[in-house]
Give the backbone structure.
Amino acid sequence: MAKLLTGKEVADALNKETEEKTKALKAQGIVPALAVIRVGEKPEDETYEKAILKKAEKTGIDVDQYTLPQEASTDEVVETVKMLSSDRDIHGILVMRPLPLAIDDEKVCGALTAEKDVDGITEKSMAALYSGKKDFFAPCTAVACMEMLKYYGIDPAGKRSTVLGRSNVSGRPLAMLLIKADSTVTICHSKTRDTAEICRNSEIMVVAAGKAGMADSSFFNKNQVVLDVGINVSPGGKICGDVDTEAALPEVYAITPVPGGVGSVTVSVLMRHVAEAALSSCQSPDPRA
Amino acid sequence: MAKLLTGKEVADALNKETEEKTKALKAQGIVPALAVIRVGEKPEDETYEKAILKKAEKTGIDVDQYTLPQEASTDEVVETVKMLSSDRDIHGILVMRPLPLAIDDEKVCGALTAEKDVDGITEKSMAALYSGKKDFFAPCTAVACMEMLKYYGIDPAGKRSTVLGRSNVSGRPLAMLLIKADSTVTICHSKTRDTAEICRNSEIMVVAAGKAGMADSSFFNKNQVVLDVGINVSPGGKICGDVDTEAALPEVYAITPVPGGVGSVTVSVLMRHVAEAALSSCQSPDPRA
């Protein structure tokens, strides 16, 4: 049976690291603070927000919630982001996305300062991630996958990795992080003809396709590490991933469960990003001084 | 024997397209203009500049040359880029890179307005290319490869493409353009263990590794299209690519020669980018008006 790569241990280790950082910051009089901007009342956003509040309390991070009505205009959201971008007491800003369709997502992302962009949505963050050059923050889910590998001692260097999905939230950033980690990366997507064969020939498979159970037994091999990024709701109302976990368990080397896998690490990554942003902000000179 | 995918026909077709654009622009009183910034006297830069001047004349584009001494400071280069960025009569800016080591490349790129960034070096251009969203310009060499495929009727959609090399000049941008074109892309690099096998299993192989003859007969298959991006000088002083062309000719379906392949299309892509930038500039309102 496959080794289960559960997220809890990884999250705990990250939380401990963040807690130490926030303690050190507080000793200097700095309280690391995250602003969460939500527009409207989507249940997923509210669930995510609750998880953030819980982890923030655990790790010593302040959370300021900015909840705008569903009918908010682009200008109102942009103004909120701008205001928080220039607020020296806020170190990280998370915008709950996707935003309502009437809101110009690009303008909102453009108003965010890259230094506080703890989920890697600004052009500066994307350019840095793409070019592999400078360190801004990458999207939390992608970083959570890398932390999983790191915690469980799986070095992607030189290994063949396949990423299923090319979204800006997980597929593309993951591909860039894996390339930076010296992995040989293949990106598959809806137009790929021989996805199963390509996956079967890879040592690491990351499934971020957003389609319940799409990775079946034809995708697996005995030495494979499978990271399941999918979060879907089954017809029976159960949370499940993009991988057919039952089919995978006897056939792969290791797999992350859903729930309790990558998803449970994401918020801990977010917290660490906030602590890191706070740390950088107190190392850079105060422009008002 | 493999079909030779020569660059001349592709370049001619692009030049014709550009010529038509510049004619239409000139009828409106706009002369598309490219500024070329060179620091120092590197022979490669001077060769490239000569090729630019020749193609520019052919396609009706003005070229302004800004040549700074080898000892120029970062500030001087940045000031030149800024001055040209705000000059309404300049539509495209090309900075010859790599710049001398003493110059802060990032600051220079940061001074360039994305709309005139005809070789895709700014953060805005990179973020757009990475995210597959908005159209700024991608690096000319990467676009030249895509134009080669297009001209010769090779649709990368659904096909397995392997890109050898992960540089920001060719490997990474090519990977992003191929993903956008619905190809299934694998990125190989110096840390890849089984490069030959991966290449052998791909329908399109783009070699941008910067190493003469590194792709030998173990990399090929009968149905393969090979794009050779390398430009190296052999010990005998001859220009050669990254592919062992002699070995490839009897074993692949089609291959671009070096010289006379991708490289000969790059300058034509640059010219088209300048014409397109000029076209966009006259469609966007004059901020002085």
The domain at 29-113 of chain A is CATH 3.40.50.10860 (Rossmann fold). The first strand of chain A starts at residue 3 and ends at 4. The two ends of chain A are 60 Å apart (CA to CA). DSSP finds ten helices and eleven strands in chain A.
